[in-house]
Amino acid sequence: MSLSHTMQRESARRTSASTVLTIIAILAVALNLRPALAAIGPVLDRIEAATGLTSTGAGLLTTLPVFLMGLGALAASSLQTRAGERRGIVLGIVIIALSCLARYVWPSNYGLLASAAACGIGIAIVQALMPGFVKRVFALDAGRIMGLYSTGIMGGATLAAATAACLSRHLGWEMMLGLWGVPALLALVLWQAASSSDPSRQRSETDKISSRSPSRSGRAWLLLLFFGVGTGAYTLVLAWLPPFYIELGRTEDAAGYLLAGLTLIEVLAGLIVSAVINRFPDRRGPLAAALLAILGGLVCLITMPLTLALPAMILLGLGIGSLFPLSLIVTLDHADDPARAGRLTAFVQGGGYMIASIMPFVAGWMRSHSNGLS
């Protein structure tokens, strides 16, 4: 009896350690899904001066990866069938790491665009497969783990934006961008260790989902457009907020800190939404509040961007950070079973990211044909 209890305690201890390692690995992977985008803005002027990249081309540095993130969401079920969750995520992390390192050895305008596209592919693969992995491994606690995963994504963007100018000043922008390949490699090591201890790794990862295509639903297309326009606010701010404030006379460090502060507020807003959303079965109130916050932030940027910089960052952070999870929650409200929820979410995010990817490119084109970003 004593031996049996000892064996049970040892098994529970190993399971607990495996769970903690898996959560750490998920967070490590999440931290690497935005630095390739967020580290560009604070040093964009340096990059343009060194490479001859136009403002339109600079917009593509965000447009390309976000567009490919959309394609990845649409191809989620195919990726899961062909590669499986664990191996597919390994592939995505490797692509992200190599793409970041390539920016150090190939820092030309063509190299930057090629690495941006490759980063987008790697991010797309991870984002397409991670929700399924979390749902399978943490079936009873998937919501909380996905909340941590989302927080990790925004945390990576915050860290990249806050350190970009300082690292570029001391190491050069080429090495600064390339250095983000190192934490990606560390995440790969952690992911491999966690995956090898995944007790449910032998389960089938290639189950096919059969249900009516969301593309036949008018409501699904409306949700897609709503998600795309809302996410477009995020991609626009991510790509062009630091250059906007640098044009107005702020230093690279100050512009990077503004973006970092905004993304940190987004993280807090997302956590608040997760905590209180069940109190609002009618989603229209929270959605209206998020949209009004974004509009208020944009009005601050239009009227008095220097005087009202802090209120603009707070309002945009709260609005954008709330609208992203709310868009997904409203999407899931329209799905009556898990299989349909997966297909609908993939459809909405896939097309939505493609719409959102247009915003940075359009802003860059407008900048190249006007006096600035105002």
Helix fraction, binned, reads: over 70%
Number of domains: 1
Enumerate the spans where pLDDT stays under 50 for 5 or more consecutive residues: 202-210
Do you know the CATH architecture?
Up-down Bundle
What is the highest CATH level, the class? Answer: Mainly Alpha
Could you please describe the fold and organization of this structure?
The longest helix has 31 residues, at 338-368. The chain has helices spanning 2-30, 35-38, 44-51, 55-74, 76-83, 85-105, 109-137, 142-171, 173-179, 181-196, 218-247, 252-276, 284-303, 309-333, 338-368. Helix 1 (2-30) runs antiparallel to helix 10 and helix 8 (142-171) packs antiparallel against helix 9 (173-179). It has one domain: Up-down Bundle (Growth Hormone, Chain: A). The protein contains 15 helices and no strands. It is mainly α and 374 residues long.
Helix and strand layout, with pairings?
Elements: H1 2-30, H2 35-38, H3 44-51, H4 55-74, H5 76-83, H6 85-105, H7 109-137, H8 142-171, H9 173-179, H10 181-196, H11 218-247, H12 252-276, H13 284-303, H14 309-333, H15 338-368
Helix pairs in contact: 1-8, 1-10, 4-7, 4-11, 4-15, 6-7, 6-9, 6-10, 8-9, 8-12, 11-12, 11-14, 11-15, 12-14, 13-14
Please sum up the structure shown.
The chain has 374 residues and is mainly alpha-helical. The chain is built from 15 helices and no strands.
